[in-house]
Amino acid sequence: MALGGAFVGIADDATASEANPAGLCNLGNAQFFVDLRYSGATDADAIDSSLGSLAVDPVTGDRDLPYLSLTSQSRSDTAVTPGFIGFAWPFTVGSQGQRLVVSGSRHVVVSEDRELTQTETRFAFDTFPNTVSDGGDVVAYSVAAPVTGASATDIVYWSASAAYQIHEDFSIGATVSYANLSLEASTSTQVIDPLQLFVDPSHPRLPSLPAVDLYQTGIDGTDNGVAYSIGVQWHPVSSFQGAAAPWRFGAVYRKGVEFAVPETTTLNGVPGPSFDNVVVVPDRYAVGASYALGKRWLFALQLERIEYSDQLEGFQSGVNFFTSGRVADGGYTVDPAKSVRFDVDDGTFVRAGAEYLASLGQENGDLAVRAGYYHAPDDRIRMTEFNSTDADVNAMYLQAFPSGSGENHLTAGVGYVMGSSSFNLAIDAAGDGTQVVASYALTFGTKRK
Which one of 206, 255, 281, 312 is least enclosed by Cβ atoms within 10 Å? Predict the structure, then answer.
């Protein structure tokens, strides 16, 4: 993290099983590794879009309808989780003493609790009468649909890895992961309609809410799958007559995994359609390089591609009240030749980092000071087409489900080796939140100072 995530070309500790399994061959001794991760609470960009107005001209009585508005915001809770724990064992095999390294690990890929806040739809159509607002003004009557919701998502990989040094310059490796998803999520949408102009007459309503339709969705399930990674690493030692090579290159392909958990829907407590909600960890691939300048400086660069479009596999649209077509029943027509469409672009990450080893004296070892940067592209699923016959309505819906924006991340950290123990701390700061990782590695077979 401290190097901006530019680790594919370096990958020289037990976490190589996730970053680039070929890098496990850099371990000459067994190693135990554990880290603890902190994620600061983040607020997503508030979405606020509207069409028309509820105002009534006091002279002519004209109204700018239809009126449609959506405000939405979500918040992620602060979390502290053990992110990675693993152990790697190196062996010498073959007549030429080639290195084989095997490892096992547990990696928390996602651990997030999220809550919907300040989310509401409001609408009015030409068929709605006028009413008097709380302030005494004559306005068009409108129906409000506030939404509450929360989700808790955990994705954990249990992995086995192997790496083999097929040449003093070249190593290959693979990781196979048993992936587990645990997902709990729920939403509740109240369609508040005091005049009962819009509530569904075909469904009995709760006696305590005679003018309210209650739409609810729920997920409480787990699923499992298999993911894998394949990596290579080249460090041209032979070109430098057995001395440490300043260059190191790496490449990795990480195959994601697809989960499916059942989602249920209800209207006023009556079961509605149910379906499998698909959750996808996207495929990704990366190439990276590092260069050691003398004994003190290390520079790293990496390009990474993440196929965010994988998330559209099995994507269900029209589940929430606002896009389900129920709003259309009140005041605008649907074009049967069109459909509601969503899209997301694949993303390319450019990662760069540098490390400087500051000597603390022969007895105290070195202190590594690190810094890095990367740009995270937009990964938000956005609406690209709506199916109304009204161009203004279509534009409003597209505005309500927009693309996001990329984020620039600055990273920094320190590391210290004391005999067989290694301590590291890193921070990743961006506009959408802050992450901190503290790690400890114990390398067996080294002498403690």
Answer: 206
Cα–Cα distance, 2 to 354 (Å, whole number): 9
Q: Report d(CA 334, CA 102) in Å as an integer.
A: 58
pLDDT at site 429: 93
d(CA 98, CA 242): 15
Q: pLDDT tens digits for 255-269?
A: 999 999 999 999 988
Task: State how far the Cα of 375 lies from the Cα of 31, in Å rounded to an integer.
Answer: 32
Q: What mean pLDDT, rounded, does the chain reach?
A: 91
DSSP type of residue 17: H
Q: Residue 290 in 3-state DSSP?
A: strand
CA distance 415 to 167: 30
The tokens of 170 are what?
A: 């070249």
How far apart, in whole angstroms, are the C-alpha atoms of residue 188 and residue 15?
Answer: 41
Q: Contact, 368 vs 296, CB < 8 A?
A: no
Instruction: Give the type of residue at 335.
Output: D
Strands, E assignment, 210-256 = 212-234, 247-255
User: How many angstroms separate the CA atoms of 130 and 55, rounded?
Assistant: 10
pLDDT recorded at residue 448: 37
Q: Got the DSSP string for 303-320?
A: EEEE-GGGGGTTPPPS-S
Q: Which helix (H) or strand (E) holds 270?
A: strand 270-281
Please state, in angstroms and rounded to a whole number, the distance separating the CA atoms of residues 398 and 383: 6
CB 94 within 8 A of CB 164: no
Nearest C-alpha neighbor of 307 from the set 359, 370, 238, 379: 379
Structural domains of the chain, with CATH:
16-443 (2.40.160)
Cis-peptide, bond into residue 66, ω within 30° of zero: yes
DSSP letters of 156-212? EEEEEEEEEEEETTEEEEEEEEEEEEEEEEEEEEEEE-TT-SSS-TTSPPPTT-TTE
How many other β-carbons are positioned within 10 Å of the β-carbon of residue 242? Answer: 9
Handedness of CA 332, 338, 342, 347 (dihedral sign): negative
**The two three-digit tokens of residue 5, written as one number:** 């995530």
pLDDT number for residue 426: 98
Q: Write out the two tokens for 51.
A: 């069409």
pLDDT tens digit string along 95-111? 777 899 999 999 999 99
Cα-flanking dihedrals φ and ψ of residue 327, to 5°? -65, -35
Torsion of CA 386, 389, 391, 395, to 10 degrees: -20
